[in-house]
Amino acid sequence: MKDYIKIEYRGGSNLYILATQLDALQKYSGSSENAKTPKLNKLGGQEWNKTKSRVKGAVKNIAKELVELYAVRQEKEGYVCGPDTVWQKEFEEMFPYEETEDQLAAIEDSSDIQGLLVLLNTVGGDVEAGLAIAEMIASIDKPTVSLVLGGSHSIGVPIAVSTDYSFIVPTGTMVIHPVRMNGTIIGAPQTYDYFKQMQNRILGFISGHCEAKRERLEELMLDTGMLTKDLGTILVGEQAVKEGIINQIGGIHEAITKLHEMIQQSHQEA
Known about the structure:
Layout: E1 4-8, E2 14-18, H1 46-75, H2 86-93, H3 103-109, E3 116-122, H4 127-138, E4 144-152, H5 156-161, E5 165-168, E6 173-176, H6 189-208, H7 214-221, E7 233-236, H8 238-242, E8 248-249, H9 252-269
């Protein structure tokens, strides 16, 4: 089962975009409250065809520039790095932890690491694994900042709010929906109780690590008017901030600057 966004065009035409491809859309915002209502195009109409022609022309220009760039690179002499030395191997072996699974534990334990920046672009995944990561990030006794770049969907929402401060880019998206499961499901009361329990864990964690109220989160999760084949809500950029889920709109510069400020403040308080 896949989620789609329905875009309505003038004349009653509809275009469906996969929820995982929301980066192809941009939210319209006027310059003021008195801004004019944007003119709607008719799918396949003259304005639509003009827009497509302009885009094709721009793509051709980009392709031409890339061809010229790679032609210049092809003519220049490259540099071949030598094989790893004994010192390189010794340096790698000095790292006392296994990568990936123990990385967060290493961050907490290492005196050389002063803070953590979490970059998110995920469509979701395993609930248990996602909650475990979120709980671990929340328990780190060092400044932590998250940045939602493309999307932080489903179980990505708890991870996004698990840090001390959170950012989202203007076109970033967050999808809040009920717990789902693939494969064979036993139609027994215990199964539904398990789903409810897991959903309560997610709602409890999110509401406990952001300004959004649990009741409002449940409303967003059970909304029926946005996703065509599912319950839930898609929040874009500023909407996630207004709902109190994310702290601020910003990009990598703002996120890194905030993390450095928090690290400096922690040193002053120590």
